[in-house]
Design a protein that fits this description.
Order of helices and strands: HHHEEEHEHHEEE
CATH class of the largest domain: Alpha Beta
CATH superfamily of the largest domain: Nuclease A inhibitor-like
Strand content: 15-25%
Largest sheet: 5 strands, antiparallel
Distance between the termini: 104 Å
Radius of gyration: 29 Å
Shape: elongated
CATH topology of the largest domain: Nuia
Number of domains: 2
Oligomer: single chain
Length: about 180
């Protein structure tokens, strides 16, 4: 049995012909743009995926706080590291009385509630690295009822205080960061 002879098409008649180096460069750039645009779009949509937001657990969230607060320093008379703080405590809002109960401190303990945004504005204005802003945005994005509490330490440490930037996570935990300070 004999097969008919097939003739090959000339190279110039292929689907994609590149005649000049400029055309080749444009083709390569177009392919790169498509590749990077597709990756960037996929990455952006995965950041805001509802399943990822819903799957944020307390350990993952606290881990994120630890990462974002690493090497941050709260500056007062005596500088302090910024550490993660959390307590399992169902709460709808955080008041001074509720927070003292969570800390198991007496009702007579001196506590001052401050503005969350004002506290972070002072830190972010003096932070060229932007790390305080990153921590602030992370806390605001994942907590409700955010606030700052300044809790005095008992005598003889009257000038010393603990500072908490906290909010409510998933309605069952009070979470945030804790710092130590000395009043001047």
């Amino acid at each position: 049995m004999k097969f008919p002879r097939l003739e090959a098409l000339p190279v110039r008649q292929t689907v994609c012909s590149v005649d000049t180096p400029a055309a080749f460069t444009i083709l390569v750039l177009a392919i790169l743009v498509v590749m990077f645009t597709g990756t960037a779009c996929h990455a952006n949509t995965s950041l805001f995926s509802p399943t990822e937001i819903e799957s944020l657990t307390l350990p993952k969230f606290v881990g994120g706080i630890v990462t974002r607060s690493a090497d941050l320093v709260y500056i007062s008379e005596q500088d302090s590291e910024v550490v993660a703080f959390y307590r399992k405590a169902p709460a709808k809002t955080i008041t001074s009385a509720v927070f003292l109960a969570i800390l198991r401190r007496s009702e007579e303990t001196e506590i001052v509630q401050q503005s969350f945004s004002t506290f972070f504005q002072i830190r972010t204005n003096n932070d060229p690295t932007g790390r305080w802003r990153i921590l602030q945005k992370y806390l605001e994005a994942n907590l409700t009822d955010v606030t700052i509490f300044r809790v005095s330490r008992d005598a003889p440490y009257g000038a010393q205080y603990d500072l908490y930037a906290v909010g409510i996570f998933n309605g069952d935990s009070v979470v945030g960061v804790q710092m130590y300070g000395v009043a001047t």
